[in-house]
User: What shape does this take?
Amino acid sequence: MRKTPVFQRDEFTIPRDEYVYSGHMGCPGCGATLTMRYALKAMGPRTVVVVCASCWTNLAGFFPFSSLSVPAVHCAFSAAAATASGLKAALDMRGADDIDVLAWAGDGGTLDIGLQGLSAAAERNEDIVYICYDNEAYMNTGIQRSSATPLGAWTTTTPLGQDRPKKNIMNIMVAHEVPYAATVSIGFPVDLMRKVAKAKGIRGTRFIHAISPCPTGWRAAPHLTVKLARLAVESKVFPLYEVEQGEYTITHMPRAHDVKEYLELQGRFKHLTDDDVQGIQSDLERAWQCLVAKSKILEEPCSVP
Assistant: This one.
């Protein structure tokens, strides 16, 4: 019989087991590597990871080597959800229903190139966990813009700054009526692992959106990665919440924090004027009020350990 992990909010401890080896090919301060490390701690050893073309194609390593201690299946850029769906069906046919399938894709492979496959999997309610590690551009191929690139951000294809707001992938997935969707940040690892563990115990398509700072593409110092991941949450750039069966819950109440510090730590925003920053701040406040209006709030917000 399948065992569902139960992590009590007041008793949670970070699992000791590690499923990401040292010696991977990540850049110093790589947020995507930390995201994978925490996610696999919550998923456990009976997991198969499907990795589509992305930074993690390199990070996982080339055959016959791997930086992961669990099986990893590499697939085409657009095919993370489709490959994971087929793999889960094959495992079920073999009676291996105690093995979880984790689809792993960046923002380009999720919000852009892979959106059609993800939408189809969600519509069928395929029994997979899908995690989008979002570094807000196509970092592996030269820092080109994606639809996850925030307004005003420099990339090699938006040298004067992105002129469109970031696509709201959470709204899109909630509109598919998936049983569970959540946002997570490596700046709040306990919240991240709780949500992945919760997703693991639910059947159907579970979607997790992870903010994963990229020092190279964000033009930020490597030692600031975790700080940026925290500031993204505290400044309301990336609120932490979950949507279960259509019910919204905010899992961390941001501290009153101006977005200016978050932006100033990243070279990709250095061209912004004070008016630009104020406009971004106003947009964030409006989006936050909309989220609060449709959410309940946990009585004991998650804290940073």
About this structure: The CA atoms of residues 30 and 214 lie 6 Å apart. DSSP finds eleven helices and nine strands in the chain. Strands lie at 47-52, 72-75, 100-106, 129-134, 180-185, 206-211, 241-244, 247-250, 295-297.
